[in-house]
Amino acid sequence: MKAPLLFLVLFLLASSCTTLEPCDEDSISEMVASFKTETGGSVIDTTVSALTVYGIREGQSIWLLYDSISESEIFLPLDPHHDFSSFVFQTGEKTDTLTLPHSSEIYLISYSCGFGNQFNLETDIQYGTGMFVKDSIINPIVNTSLEEEDIHIWLYF
Amino acid sequence: MALWRPVSGQDTLRTYGPRFGIDLARFAYILADPSELGAEVSVDFEIYRNLYPVIELGYNSISDSQDFFKYSASGIYGRAGLDYNLINLKDRSQHHTFTFGARYGISMFSHSAEDIYIPNAYWGDFVSDSYEKDLRGHWIELVAGVKAELVPNLFIGWSLRYKFLLNPDMDPQVTPHMVPGFGTGGEDSTFGFSYSIFYKIPLLKK
């Protein structure tokens, strides 16, 4: 009776030894935007051709994020210094500025990775009339953890 | 009543009383990792044959510096539970035990991070204010241990513990790196080890 109990304890001890994992995660929080079109009441994925995207940093020069790509979804890093992030979209002759309002707070990614920013997207997304038709927030929480299927907003063209 | 009466095979009297212990393994931990300090004391009492209610009290602190932040946590903890002795010695004057038992543990502590720096190649690096929060952790332990009576009333012993944290989401924003008395807060379950010296005050003899 005593020996099985001791073996049980030793088994549990051996089976759950863990070590501190090395950091394999980036500290950048990226929002995934998926491109859509709506025709006849149905929403379908769409690939946008020759798409160039710039980030707009307040008081600084704009920076190139994507250069003439053809994609149906893109990753947009959000600005931890402000309560909004702005991007200029260009495709062909069309240009539009997308402004995403958000709140943010720090969180511990892991002890080995350190801290990251977690954003909460707000609904008042702004853009002009040059490119986007409408938007839909799918998941408002944006942080450094990104799964393959994660999508945060739909942008309708 | 002689406290140091020799134990012998002819002596069938068994002594009872509160047994106080101190965990010596904590001092070894300090030598291995000076950023983590701790101390733990315990008391048990054989209230019924082979049945020992146990109370353990302790303190833990950690102060550590990582690449992009400094972290510290400190607090007190307590555990209460029962041990059951699986050894039935014919000579009841001997008090060696191999026990199996369980504990409920609770810790009250605070943790904080400062000099938080988040690298960001797109928007510029982000420096945050310090973060601090008071927390309370709860857990259950399964304990197996041995105590050997070196000389009458003086014991040395070790225990292995398997611990289940009941509220691992106590701080979803900053998972505590250390829950005093439990261990690493990022784990739902963990192991513990103690190596202690005990002294029993033999209040009763029967």
Note down, in words, how this protein is organized.
The complex is a heterodimer of chains A (157) and B (206). With 157 residues, chain A is mainly beta. Chain A contains one helix and eleven strands, in the order H-E-E-E-E-E-E-E-E-E-E-E. Chain A has one helix at residues 2-15, and strands at residues 30-39, 42-45, 48-56, 63-71, 73-77, 84-91, 94-110, 114-121, 134-137, 141-142, 153-156. A six-stranded antiparallel sheet of chain A has the order 4-3-6-7-8-10, with no helix packed on it. In chain A, strands 1, 2, 5, 9 and 11 form a five-stranded mixed sheet that branches. In chain A, strand 3 (48-56) and strand 4 form a beta hairpin. The termini of chain A are far apart. Mean pLDDT of chain A is 85; it is low at 6-18. By secondary structure, chain B is mainly beta. Helix content of chain B is 4%, strand content 57%. Chain B contains one helix and twelve strands, in the order E-E-H-E-E-E-E-E-E-E-E-E-E. Chain B has one helix at 25-32, and strands at 15-16, 19-23, 36-44, 51-65, 70-85, 97-114, 116-118, 126-128, 131-151, 154-165, 189-200, 204-205. In chain B, the strands form three sheets. Chain B has an eight-stranded antiparallel beta barrel with strand order 2-3-4-5-6-9-10-11. A two-stranded antiparallel ribbon of chain B has the order 1-12. In chain B, strands 7-8 form a two-stranded antiparallel ribbon. Residues 6-10 of chain B have low confidence and may be disordered. Classes of the chains: A mainly beta (157), B mainly beta (206). At the A-B interface, helix 1, strand 7 and strand 8 of A face strand 6, strand 7, strand 9 and strand 11 of B.
